[in-house]
Amino acid sequence: ASAIELLTQAAGGVEEADEIGALIDQLQAVRNTPEAPELEARIIERIKASGGAAARQIVEAEAARWETFTRSWGDAERYTGLLALYEAAPTLFRLERYIDALQDMTQGARVFIVSDDVNLRVDLNAETKDATGEIFQPEEDF
Question: pTM above 0.70?
């Protein structure tokens, strides 16, 4: 591919690439000065305005950063709420977590409740399979 094609793909055009390149050169000159962050922000905005592949990458990176931030913020808020619940009633909080863990472990499993009374025996198979069967079909369709 020619240089013009590459610049057009990356920066939206040759003129845009030249402008962005000049701004980057300016940034290199003022790298460790108070003007650097403002110039860097201008460069990013100029790249985003160019509409090239670099702009798409910046927008995708900003979206990923925002998603990570909001997920982390939500996790922190959830933790704060759980901490408040624990401080209000520690025993109840631990019991609820224990029951939740038991439910997670036994989900989808057959559970048997038995008594420690030696004389007690109950057999129950409470499975429901094809309970409706073909009751809504006329008899000749069976």
Answer: no
